[in-house]
Amino acid sequence: MTPQALKLRAGLFAVASLLIAALGAFLLFGRGKLPIQTDLLAMLPATEQSPLAEAAVERLAHANGDRVALLVADADDTRAKDAARALGKALATHKVFGLVTAELPPFDLQQLLAPYLAHRDWLLTDADRAALAKPGYDPAQALAQRLNEPFLTGVGVPLQDDPFGWLQHWLAQQPWSRSPLLPEDDLLVAHRDDATYVLVTATLDGSSYDDDVQRRALSAVHDAEQQLEHDFPGTRLLRTGAVFYAAAARTGAEHDVHMVGWISSIGIALLLLGVFRSPGPLLLAFLSTAVGVVAATTVSLLVFGQIYLLTLVFGAALLGEAVDYSIQYLSARANAGAHWQAGAGLRQVRPALLLALATSLLGYLLLGLVPFPALRQMAVFAISGMSAACLSVFWLLPALLQRPARPMTAALVRGARALQHTLSRPAHGWRGVLAALLLLLLALPGWMQLRHDDDVHNLIAQPAALTAQETQIRDITGLGNGSQFYLVQGRDSAQVAQREEALETRLQALVDDGKLEGWLGLAGMVPSPARQAQDHALLARLFHDPAHLRQTLADAGFRADAIDAWLAAWPGAPLRLDDWLKTPLSTPFRQLWMGCDAQGCASLVLPQGSDDNALLAQAAAGLPGVQLVDKPASVSGLFGRYRGYASLWLLAAMLLIVPVFGWRYGWRRAPRVLAPPVLGIALTLAALGYLGQPLTLFHWMALMLVLGVGANYAVFLHEGEPHTAGRPGAMYASVLLSALTALLSFGLLSLSSLPALRDFGLTLLLGIAFTALLVPASRATTDTTARLPR
């Protein structure tokens, strides 16, 4: 191809790259906020068999996701309450919060009674139901017990409205009556461990996962906390909420991006300057990589509409692999010396680059098969980025590299030649078989120490300080997290309520045994029509003889008008779920009702005080329409299954590469070319075992990339050495350069704050290092003058 044709093609490629960059810039910055996703739930795969279960998971996750819970603690009761009021006023001045609740609006506790009073003759507790069902029930005895009850705190039913205490007993079992938080001086207060705790809640005016909302919310809470420390010394502030976790995750990811990006960029720059002794190759290598990263970002945003945290950090590390293609072209130019021709050089490296790209893309394609949104995005990012970087070498660099260049540093070439000779000697003849057996023998103890850990909580590190505060707030307030719940389905709301009641009977048995603290479900607040009819029928036995009831109440000293009013309220009306959901009292619990559609109705029941999946699953065993949904356990199980499949995928990838290498290098040489990445994977697994690293899905996905990267190095060496026969060691020097750039990027992921990327990075660090050292063994000493592969 003529220089003019090369320049024309480079110009067209440059224009296309600029257009892609402009589109990427618009997608990143042109829509008001950065599309960076810090919501862990969005990164996780769909694991539930029922779409309704997935919808329930999302509903619960986001029901309180935009709320912040703050707990003001002080040993002095008055100071704690004053500090909570001051905190509420301080937060209310910030527009980032749509609603701040510290002081409760003045209200009479009897307002909690209003939705139930008209339905009192249809509501009974289990104890009252059992007592009324026994022959010879004596209402006079129940009345005497009611009259002698101690002073009631909380919601008390007036005696004239509930002389026998049936409604009072029922209300005492409602969630608001069991809460450790009690209204006190117009605040929600808990007294524990010689301290007073006051709850302050705030609802964000926006999403917890919005960068601007996070920044403003954290600033507001920090300012308020500083003011509290100044005005109320000794007062402590505990906090929890999705916004704090999301902000911490974003901060960690930004730190990782800067660390990986800057260190790898500086390290790669120094390497390239040292090897090529000119800033030109350095700038062109980074130009090629930049084209790949920009294209990858744009394609990912077009496909997914957002960038996950994992992809963000992974993208910074992609520098090390994307730069390999330009390094090989620059090495070919340096090795050609005065005989350099850009077109001829391109033809020389094209087979190696295409073969290397194909093996790398194979690994990423297999990564994209995992039904995990974050991994799929990483695969799309890598495939588009690597392809664009390779195309830039074919279409852009030849036009910019018309002139010959200085050869590689002589010391580097001599060092690479000595190392190559040292590493290849044991691989020749019978010594190669013996060396391989020795390596496998050394690896065996490491393999035997391997174990697995599929816990999804290891995906992203939760800051210890935030986790400890959240645990303390739950313990003091009784607020649950909703990560485990029961999905109850039925043909209509009545059947759903009946099935909830069957479940709650079993849950109550666990509470009685001390294995569960309690549960939260709608059937406990609005019993099924069948249950209400049963209760009403039991009371009807007494109201069948109103004269006897009148006399019993009169003997106890009740006024005639009070007796008449109470008897006139009979028979009342059953409580309907639709009516109850319209009352203000239902507001905190409405997310438990999933509603009805053509397939039926559904509700949620939240167990409290236990995360024992087996125990909770047993409670639902055999109950029609009831299933336990545990999103973390489901995802962990999915990770475990796909981790188990990963070894098969890895084997499949190796088998797919074999015929390609057989076609290119011949069937006798193909096993030797494939040996370095395969042995590198084996040694990496052994090293992970020695390090006590439990294997996760991310280790196996990284091993898939080790296969691709390792195969690249073998390909570069085999394809390039015949062209550098006059300068032994030059080709291995370029392979080492590629390996070092990869270690400076992917290897730095082992220092990431994200556990998943740490696993990924450590595996690649070990795998790339082992493979780079094993590559000379794939080319025996006698092969260094072999003919150019066909």
TrEMBL record:
It is found in: Cell membrane. Residues 185-408 form the Membrane transport protein MMPL domain. The keyword Repeat does not apply. It is a multi-pass membrane protein. Keywords: Cell membrane, Membrane, Transmembrane, Transmembrane helix. InterPro entries: MMPL_dom (IPR004869), Mycobact_MmpL (IPR050545). Pfam families: MMPL (PF03176). The chain crosses the membrane at residues 259-276, 283-303, 352-372, 378-401, 429-448, 642-661, 673-691, 697-717, 729-748, 760-777. This is MMPL family transporter.
